[in-house]
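Posted in: Protein Modeling Q&A

I'm a second-year student putting together a small comparison for a lab meeting, and my supervisor asked me to include a predicted structure for Transketolase. I've never done this before, so apologies if this is the wrong subforum. The sequence is pasted below exactly as I got it from our records. If anyone can share the structure token output, I'd also love a short note on what stands out.
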Amino acid sequence: MQTQEIQKISSQVRRDILRMVHGCQSGHPGGSLGCTDLLVDLYFSTMNLKTDAAGKVVFDMDGTNEDLFFLSNGHISPLIYSVLARRGYFPTAELATFRKIDTRLQGHPTPHEHLEGIRIASGSLGQGLSVSIGAAQAKKLNGDKSTVFCLMGDGEQNEGQVWEAAMYAPHHKVDNLIAFIDENGQQIDGPTEKVMSNRDLEAKYKAFGWNVMRMDGNNAVDIQNTLIKAKAELGKGSPIMIIMKTEMGAGVDFMMYSHKWHGVAPNDQQLQDALAQLEETLGDY
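Accepted answer (user: helix_wrangler)
Welcome! Here is the predicted structure, written out as tokens:
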């Protein structure tokens, strides 16, 4: 898919995120907006997804012979819900039920709601990389040549389980895995440098044996080019880690450059000001 198309879809997804969080006055818009460009590229361009004869995506929990994505930082659920709906996994009208009573769109994704596209519960930070490694190993054992993708936050690197997984994957040559760290420099209590500095994440992952790359996570061209390079490195004995620089709240000027919008919903006027900055390209739900 051309980058111009990716950018148009991303604009609509950002509108969805803002309207969903505003609609229930709860949720996490900042990180969702920051990671939009990556997830739109993955689901609309990069990933090989299972489809029927008419080209509509088909979901099953096993995910055999297709690429898989696992969202570890599950609090950015508005993003994954919007992308899944826009990709055709479930009706976009269901986005209006986000975080409401009896919804399938919980604040943090859960598989027991049987929402198409969701395979694990996430939001208890630190677990997604381990799950992704297990799925990637299962694919290798089954002779499945597909790729597993995983997204984590930079604040999430505070979790010890992340580093157990970081040691495990290179040792076992899990080379069908591409993981991402959203390096926006913000977490719920403030800048990551003040809360708990990650210092040099690139050096750390390289020391564990990962093939580490960097990219601009809010630049559609750089995302596509980096993913092409990363896919060319699959099967060479090392898992791949892409550290992507993003801005929390990307796309909305007053939500950027601060941790303030990590978990705060916009009021009516703020919603209108934000939507005015984002083109409606696919039609609001």
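A couple of things worth pointing out for your meeting: The mean pLDDT is 97. The two ends are 23 Å apart (CA to CA).
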